[in-house]
Amino acid sequence: MTNKSIPPSVQHWFTQLLTEITPTEQEQKHLSTIIQKITDIIQNSIPSKNIKINFITPQGSTGIKDTALRNASDIDLFIGLDPSMLGDVINLSKSKIRNHIRELFKNLITDWLIPELKRHQIQNPVKNYAEHPYISAKYQGIDLDIVFCFDISEKFLFTKGLLTAVDRTPHHSRYICQHMTDTQRNEVRILKFLFQKFHCYGDKSAVGRSGFLGYIAELLIVQYDTVWNLMWRFTELESSVLFLTPLNPELKNPYHNLTIEAARKRYFRDDFLVIIDPTDLHRNVGSSVSIRAYRLIRHEFQHFLSNPYPEFFIKDSLPSIRSIDLDLDYTLSNFFYTEFKTTDYAHYTKFRDKLYSAMDKFINQASQEVTLEPRFEQVTGELLFDASKGEFVLAFFTTTPQISKEFIRRGPKANGHAHVDKFRAKHPQAYISDGIWCTIKERKYVYFNDLMKNYFSNIQITNLEITDTGKATDEKYSELAGQSMANLALNILPFEFLKKKF
Question: Would you say the pTM of this structure is higher than 0.70?
């Protein structure tokens, strides 16, 4: 497909935006100075010859890929260990290798790096956990993660796989560096800005459990060259498998003759987008992208293409629900929230995942009775959180915030034999309606807000406590609660069951 020419006015807006979002020379020098300082601290303090370090390199957008946005930089400094450090351990089972590596990383962090960083006045170096332990710190206003990985070769990656989940990160960086021009790096910056503007970026996405990751943005520009061209061809992502030239050019495309439906069924069940990682052909980097994030970005791109406007490039914070124009089909009385606060440190993704699980279970419970009759109608929800403050809010919507006190409980068929006697014995007032035994049951909860309060007061999530529950019609609630309900109204509901536009 031929790329569409970008109108001069839109090109001007893109150029203007780049002057605002590209890191300044001063910022880049500041980052380089910090990277060099931390690298020197590590290299000059290696406590044993048994610790074999092949590289210390900044990865991510601030690192060698150079796709970071202004004033949004953090440093991911990777320490690449030589796999020979594992010795005969590498021949053990995967679980034993994983346990050995976790213990190795923990000891290197606790016994060496944290004390050494503290000695050089690096602010608050602490041990965190993902799959394996790593260090988080802060220095001269910049967030810093120091991550151990193993320096595995391309051959090792393709034949034996990973030793840790982050071993492929240096391969990602090398792939992007080999396939991206300086002009395309600026295109990535524009795309990241737009994903952030519409709250669909990364694992802190306000729209869906996860939005578009930085690596996905980079791959999209490698594939489509410009943001403008990606906008026009964005819907291809939902209708085909995106397969880029692999890191190893000798590898063939195993998805060549497969539709996206077939690829999902055979390899990537439950994944909406299928974007094959060119460094690992068995991995779908698109699996993390929520369908909600995709639908919102698709809508915004199509809206812009139909009538380009400069305000498209202005990023605003989420408004409160009281400050927006609601759809004619619903009012403030249809929106509710439950707010949480962390009581001890854990990585925000752990709280995020547990709250999404609790949200899904509550929606199922709120939508139907235990006996499967309908309950509150068209219930949906979304999570919004501020990881820096440890604050999380689940927002909910229903078209029926109040329901009847009684409902009809439907039982077995009147002419059937199975379960009839049991049903009638349990429900002496049962009657036949349209050939079905029925009875009248009384509900415990008539108001959605009461059910929500009861449900969440009875769930226990470690290091997380409820600070408030309520509804959009309440006189007062926190800024984050108001934003969470607005996010649900603006970015979720228009693309789900209320309007069948998509």
Answer: yes
Cβ–Cβ < 8 Å for 502, 299? yes
Distance in angstroms (rounded) separating the CA atoms of residues 393 and 380: 14
The β-bridge relationship of strands 75-81 and 142-150 is parallel
pLDDT at residue 130 tops 80: no
Please check whether residues 415 and 391 belong to one and the same domain.
no
**One domain for residues 342 and 490:** yes
Helix (H, G, I), strand (E, B) or coil at 373: coil
Give a yes or no: residue 149 inside a domain.
yes
pLDDT digits (tens, 9 = 90+) for 317-375: 999 999 999 987 899 999 999 999 999 888 888 999 999 999 999 999 999 998 899 99
Same domain? For 401 and 450 the reply is: yes
Domain range enclosing 412: 407-440
What is the rounded CA–CA span in Å between residue 289 and residue 200?
9
Task: Assign 39 a pLDDT band (cuts: 50, 70, 90).
Answer: very high
Q: Tell me what percent of the residues of the chain surpass a pLDDT of 90.
A: 81
Q: How many residues does the chain have?
A: 502
How confident is the model over 414-432, as pLDDT tens digits?
887 778 999 999 999 999 9
Burial of 445 (0-12, 13-18, 19+ CB in 10 A): middle
Q: Tell whether 208 and 138 lie within a shared domain.
A: no
Residues paired with 142 in a beta bridge: 139
Asked if residue 502 is part of any domain, the answer here is no
- Contact in structure between 206 and 199 (CB atoms under 8 Å): yes
Q: Which residues of 408-438 are buried (b: 16+ CB within 10 A; e: fewer)?
A: ebbbbeeeeeeebeebeeebeebeeeeeebb
Residues 6+ apart with CB under 8 A from 212: 195, 200, 201, 202, 289, 293, 297
Name 82's Cβ contacts closer than 8 Å, sequence gap at least 6.
Answer: 52, 53, 54, 150, 151
Number of domains composing the chain: 4
